Amino acid sequence: TADFRALAALLEVEVAAIRGDLRTVDRAIAWMEKNLAKHSFLDDALAHRADLLDRKGETDATRRAYEAILARIPDGDRAPGAAWRIAFQHLRSAHAELAVPILEKIPTLPRSSDEDLRRATYWLARSIELSDPDRSRSIDRALASTWSYYAWLSIDRATRLGAPHAKELRDLALAPFVRSDVPAPALARSIV
Asked: What does each C-alpha distance from 154 to 70, 96, 136, 148, 168 come to in angstroms?
C-alpha cells in the first residue's frame, strides 16, 4: 500500500539523515515526490533533510529547505516548525527585521500549535522591542495571560531589565490564581 511505501521511504530518509548521508536522503525524497507527492510524510522527509543541512552548517541551503516546506506544504504539520527555523536563523544572524514577517505568519498556518503561537509571539515581541516598543509591550501583556513557558520568559526578561511594565506582567500572569477575598497584606499567601 501507499502508506507502507511512504513509511519505508521516510524511514530510509531518517536513517540516512542520522548517518549524514545527504545523497541518500535526496534520492529517497525524489522517489517520494514522484510516487507519493500528496502523502503527509513528505513534509517530514523534507524537514529531516533541512535538519541534516543545518547540522552540516549549510545555512543558506537550510533556509531554502525550510522555505520549500512552507511553499510546497503550507498546511502540513511541519510548516510552523519550518517557519520558526527560518525566523530563528534570521534572529541568530542579528536580522530581526527579516524574522518579523515570518513570526507574524506562524499564527496563520493551519497546523500551528499553541506552543508554536506562543514561541512566535514571544520572539516577535523581542524582535520589535527597539523599533516598536509599544507594540512589543502590548504583545508581552497578551502573552503574560497565557500561563506558559514563554509568558514567564517574557516576565523574567522584563524583570531583569527593570522594565516599567514588569510588575503588570507578573500581575496579569498571577491574576487567575489570586483570591480577591484576601486583604492585600496577605495577598502573597493567597495563591491557590
From this structure: 28, 17, 11, 10, 12
Long-range contacts of 116-119 (CB under 8 A, 24+ apart): 116/80, 116/81, 116/84, 118/143, 118/146, 118/148, 118/149, 118/150, 118/151, 119/84, 119/150
pLDDT at 176 (0 to 100): 75
How does pLDDT run across 26-60, given as a tens digit for each residue? 999 999 999 988 888 999 999 999 999 999 999 99
Give the contacts of 62 (CB within 8 A, at least 6 positions apart). Answer: 50, 53, 54, 85, 89
The angle at the Cα of 87, spanning 168 to 49, to the nearest 5 degrees, equals 140
User: CA torsion sign, 130 to 145 to 88 to 38?
Assistant: negative
Q: Which residues contact 24 (CB under 8 A, 6 or more apart)?
A: 12, 16
Give CB contacts under 8 A, 24+ apart, made by 161-168: 165/137, 165/140, 165/141, 168/141, 168/144
Q: Which 3 state secondary structure label does DSSP give 136? A: helix
Kindly state the cell numbers that stand for 156. Answer: 523574567
Nearest-CA neighbor of 124 among 148, 142, 146, 145? 142
